[in-house]
Task: structure prediction
Amino acid sequence: MNFKDILKKDIEKTFLDIDKLAEELEIDGVKHKGVLDSKENVETKVESQGIYNTDISILYILYSDELRKRCKKGRSIEVNKRTYIIESVAEQLGMLVVKLSENTGF
Result:
């Protein structure tokens, strides 16, 4: 077993443990274990059509090639029946880290 395998096992047993930190997330209709960290009203824009607040969320899920192929910058993604726009995607220590934005307008 190499270091990456050990790290992946540790992430699955600790960070992505439903009883400890993770939750079951529905991503584009498929269930995954992960963490969705939300930060509300990060940026406010005033445009001719109204005022828009941008909420930023960070999605942490176990890396898989299938998810990585679907998570592209600029693409929309549905997480727990809410639609987000993917701002960035990175792999960090065996996790897929996806920065999401959600616009709410008045």
